[in-house]
TrEMBL record:
InterPro entries: Bact_solute-bind_prot3, Solute-binding_3/MltF_N. This is Amino acid ABC transporter substrate-binding protein. It comes from the Bacteria. PANTHER family: AMINO ACID ABC TRANSPORTER PERMEASE (PTHR30085), AMINO-ACID ABC TRANSPORTER-BINDING PROTEIN YHDW-RELATED (PTHR30085:SF7). One of its GO terms (biological process) is amino acid transport. Keywords: Signal, Transport. Residues 1-24 form the signal peptide. It comes from Aureimonas endophytica. Residues 35-264 form the Solute-binding protein family 3/N-terminal domain. The keyword Transport applies. Pfam families: SBP_bac_3. Belongs to the bacterial solute-binding protein 3 family.
Length: 339
C-alpha cells in the first residue's frame, strides 16, 4: 500500500517535470539554450533590482552572473525572471528558471516537500521590525495590539505569528503580496509596523517618504539563511551552483580579486594554482572549463567584493559584514576546500 502510494506520487512528480520541459540535465539544457534563466526579486535594492538603465544589479543578481560566467565565460548570458515571493517556487519547480537567487530562506520544508536544493548561504539574515519614530517604541515586546504589514508567501508571515503568540501579544496582520504595496501601506500609516528580513527593512526604509522618521527595532526574531536554490534531482547542476558559491568565498579567503585574478594565475601558492585551474581538472569534472574560477572572479569579483558593491558600508544600504564576514574574520561564511 505504502509502496503504491510512493510510486503514484513519483509518477505525478515525473509527469510534472516532463510536462514542464524541465529535465535533470540542467547544465546541458542551459548550454544548449545559450542563456541561464535566473529567478530574481522584482525589486529589492542591494539584492535584485533594475537600475535606471534597466540593468539588473544586486548580490543575488551577481550570483546569476557568477554562474553564467562559470558556464559560458560570459556574465551577460543571463535572462532575468523577476518573481514575487509567491511565484518563486512554482517557477523553479516547473522549469521556468534554472536557478532561484531571490533572498530565499533555506528551510526544511522548502528543501524537502517543495523539492528544492539550496546551494549554500549567500547572506545570513534574520527577521526584524520597523516602526515610526513618533511611536516612541524601543523594543518589539512593546508591540502588542499593533497593526503589522507583512508580505504573503514568506517565512516572515509565519515567524510573525509565532513571535506574537510566544510572547502572549496580540496583532492585526495586513497581508499583501507585493512588497511595494506593503511599503506603501506602512508609509501611508495603514500599519504601525513593517516586518521582514533585516536586509529588506533597510532597503524598504530607503523607499519611505521620510526614511529618517523610521527606526529598525533591535530584536531579531528568526534565522533567515538566504540561499540560491535549484530543483532537486540534478546533482551535476546543484554542484555547479554550490561550487560557484564556494569559489567566491575561497577566492576572498585567498585574496583573489577581480583586479588581481589574472596576475594570481602565476602565483606559486599551490592552493591558488589548483583553484585557478593550473594542472587541475576540477572544472572539467563538473562539466565546465578548468579556468572556471578565473571566469567567475573576472566577472563579479570574490564574495567580499560582491557584498561591498551591493550592500556594504559604502552603499545606500550601508550593511556591515557581521555574520557574513569570513570565518577567518569572526563571521559564519566558510567554504569547503577546492582540491
Ligand atoms: N526570506 C524570506 C522573505 C523573502 C521575501 O520575499 N522578502 C520580501 C521582503 S524583503 C521581498 O523580497 N519582497 C520583494 C518583492 O516581492 O518584490 C523568505 O524566503 O520567505
Amino acid at each position: 500500500m505504502k509502496t503504491k502510494l510512493v510510486v503514484a506520487a513519483l509518477g505525478v512528480a515525473i509527469a510534472g517535470l516532463a510536462a514542464s520541459g524541465a529535465s535533470a540535465a540542467t547544465l546541458a539544457d542551459v548550454k544548449a539554450r545559450g542563456t541561464l534563466r535566473c529567478g530574481v526579486n522584482t525589486g529589492l535594492p542591494g539584492f535584485g533590482s533594475q537600475n535606471d538603465k534597466g540593468e539588473w544589479q544586486g548580490l543575488d543578481v551577481d550570483y546569476c552572473k557568477a554562474v553564467a560566467a562559470a558556464v559560458f565565460g560570459d556574465a551577460t548570458k543571463v535572462q532575468y525572471v523577476p518573481l514575487s515571493a509567491v511565484q518563486r517556487f512554482p517557477a523553479l519547480q516547473n522549469g521556468e528558471v534554472d536557478l532561484l537567487a531571490r533572498n530565499t530562506t533555506w528551510t526544511l520544508s522548502r528543501d524537502t516537500a517543495l523539492g528544492l536544493d539550496f546551494a549554500g548561504v549567500n547572506y545570513y539574515d534574520g527577521q526584524g521590525f520597523m516602526v515610526k519614530k513618533e511611536l516612541n517604541v524601543t523594543s518589539a515586546l512593546q508591540l502588542s495590539g499593533a497593526t503589522v504589514c507583512v508580505q504573503s508567501g514568506t517565512t516572515t508571515e509565519l515567524n510573525l505569528a509565532d513571535y506574537f503568540r510566544a510572547n502572549n501579544m496580540q496583532f492585526n496582520p495586513v497581508v499583501i503580496e507585493a512588497q511595494n504595496d506593503v511599503n506603501a501601506a506602512y508609509d501611508s500609516g495603514r500599519c504601525d509596523v513593517l516586518t521582514t528580513d533585516q536586509s529588506g527593512l533597510y532597503a524598504s526604509r530607503l523607499e519611505m517618504s521620510k526614511p529618517d522618521d523610521n527606526v529598525v527595532l533591535p530584536e531579531i526574531i528568526s534565522k533567515e539563511p538566504l540561499a540560491p536554490a535549484v530543483r532537486q534531482g540534478d546533482s551535476q547542476w546543484f554542484d555547479v551552483v554550490k561550487w560557484t558559491h564556494f569559489a567566491l568565498l575561497n577566492a576572498e579567503e585567498l585574496g583573489i580579486t577581480q583586479a588581481n585574478v589574472q596576475e594570481m594565475t602565476k602565483s606559486p601558492n599551490p592552493e591558488i594554482q589548483r583553484m585557478l585551474g593550473a594542472g587541475s581538472t576540477f572544472g572539467q569534472d563538473m562539466g565546465l572549463s578548468n579556468d572556471w574560477v578565473v571566469k567567475i572572479v573576472s566577472a563579479v569579483g570574490n564574495y567580499g567584493e560582491i557584498f561591498e558593491r551591493n550592500v556594504g558600508s559604502a552603499t545606500p544600504l550601508g550593511i556591515a559584514r557581521g555574520q557574513n564576514a569570513l570565518w577567518t574574520k569572526g563571521g559564519l561564511q566558510y567554504a569547503p576546500p577546492i582540491r
